[in-house]
Specification:
The structure is a homodimer.
Chain A: E1 2-6, E2 18-19, E3 36-38, H1 46-54, E4 59-63, E5 67-72, E6 77-78, E7 89-90, H2 92-103, E8 107-113, H3 118-129, E9 134-138, H4 149-156, E10 157-161, E11 166-167, E12 173-177, E13 191-196, H5 200-218, E14 228-233, E15 244-254, E16 257-262, E17 279-283, E18 295-300
Parallel strand pairs in A: 5-8, 5-9, 6-7, 9-13, 11-15, 14-16
Antiparallel strand pairs in A: 1-4, 2-3, 10-12, 12-13, 14-18, 15-16, 15-17, 17-18
Helix pairs in contact in A: 2-5
């Protein structure tokens, strides 16, 4: 999974420690040949690329971007831009997940809305997986829906997770794919499949919790998870009895503290609860909840 | 500066409020046609793109990316990858600034190492500015160097700033460019030029302080500056008598606090002081400095 790339200003990671070598030139006042300049797993930003270039290197070994095939499933979906008929909705998840996948460093092959029959669906997925490290689907994994995805994943590999105690995100599904007629396993392991729920908030929250760290692991990042910061809850976070809940919050500064306010109704279909959210607050299952004024660790998406 | 773009997962901004319109479809439980769904200046991440797509929109009006021509100047520079002779160094700033410009949302036209004579230099810059919103140069603006850049900027427009009370970054230069033989001013105003210092840390710090906010302004972002957070200094920050200093620090968590530690020698040539830094701490000019244990607002580059 290691490739030599030209220095290009892309954000990539180095797979092993990078040292100042024989072709070392003035990087700074305190470096000598043989000193380590970048650790394995370092994300290459402007300063890190500058340091590497200052040693005279025109290319660096980096992890390549994971290739992800992205598919939406659901009888109710129409292409965004086409007028939905009765009971239909635009396939908005595709575009939200495309943006989320790119932000996480993936190259995306957009398969569009899945065929509604088992054989064409299987042919499409098998073909796409010839050139992909991972399959990400949205929708079609809930009980009671016309689900062709889970049987397909079972026929191509092993479904390890078919449900999680998470709100939003209960129908989240995870599988490893290694069976014929897929090509041989990839050099670094099996292909993986993430079946995300169809509700827009559920698909993006399970992406944050499960898919993004996995994609960062594939890229060799030392830091897999979103950073967390302590925040003071500005509202009473009511719990869900049987599931951990990731509530969406905005943050604002009050003196030296960050105050977390709810983005409003936390319905899984209400994407406005995530648009503009700065962080996710994890509320444990049970009947306690977290009272306003408490300090909690929030998963930071962006800072105000 | 407004263009219609296909939904692509790119991070762009909306120039005006986006409202749920006649082609509104189920975005959530609490929206009705006419409600505002995205404010002007919003950065379009996954959830925001999902919200727009859920309204049935296949394209959005957004600001286009600023086009920046990037040039390195200095007799001592050789192309990265070529072996430097005596007194020469690789042109590492080009690659660091390319990465920084892209992170800030710009499309970059890399001009390479500037010609060493006035007329070829002028021809190159005038040609590049036909299709650019901004010129960014590094090096060649210090007193005593063989500087062709400042006279060129003076002949093409007005140099407003030729020196700043900043460490690192004293030679920072800013000009607006509107004179013949440049094409007519752009519809949204004059072209601008940023002459960054040649020292690697100086060029990236002045980029952070001056160039990145300007590029974000051109893109219509509501949030122009890096976010700040209160951090506790883990070291004595010694001041510079006559210049504000931006010291590079790493951050670590200690209980509910972020502790800022110096990245070591803050020499302008020591890019290792910026590689891996999480934040910049502003130390006012004078003889006071900031003692260890003080709380200061740090400009956050990334979180630990």
């Amino acid at each position: 999974m290691v490739e030599d790339v030209q220095l290009s200003g892309d954000t990539v990671t180095v797979p092993g420690p990078l040292k100042a070598g024989a072709n070392f030139h003035k990087v700074g006042d305190d470096l000598k040949p043989g000193d380590r300049i970048l650790a394995a797993g370092t994300q290459l930003g402007a300063a890190e690329i500058g340091v590497a270039a200052a040693t005279g290197r025109a290319s660096l070994p980096v992890r390549r971007r994971p290739r992800v095939a992205l598919m939406s499933t659901g009888d109710e979906l129409v292409e965004v831009g086409n007028r939905p008929g009765p009971g239909q909705i635009p396939d908005s998840n595709r575009w939200a997940l495309l943006a989320a996948l790119r932000e996480a460093g993936a190259e995306v092959n957009v398969l569009g809305i899945a065929p509604d029959e088992a054989e064409p669906l299987r042919a499409l997925v098998v073909d796409a997986l010839g050139d992909a490290d991972a399959l990400v689907t949205s929708g079609g994994v809930s009980v009671g829906t016309h689900d062709l995805v889970k049987p397909l994943l079972e026929s191509l590999g092993t479904v390890h997770v078919g449900r999680v105690k998470l709100k939003p995100g209960k129908p989240f599904t995870f599988a490893t794919l290694g069976h014929a007629p897929l090509p041989d396993p990839l050099p670094w392991g099996e292909r993986v499949a993430f079946g995300l729920p169809g509700f827009p908030v559920s698909s993006l929250v399970t992406f944050e919790v499960f898919v993004r760290p996995a994609l960062r692991k594939m890229q060799g990042f030392a830091q897999l998870h979103r950073p967390t910061l302590p925040v003071r809850l500005g509202y009473d976070a009511r719990p869900t009895a049987d599931r951990t809940e990731y509530q969406r919050v905005t943050l604002r500064r009050d003196g030296l503290e960050l105050i977390a306010e709810t983005t409003g109704s936390q319905s899984s279909s209400r994407l406005m609860s995530l648009a503009g959210a700065h962080a996710l607050v994890k509320v444990p299952a049970g009947d306690q909840g977290i009272i306003a004024g408490s300090i909690v660790e929030a998963m930071i998406l962006s800072l105000p």
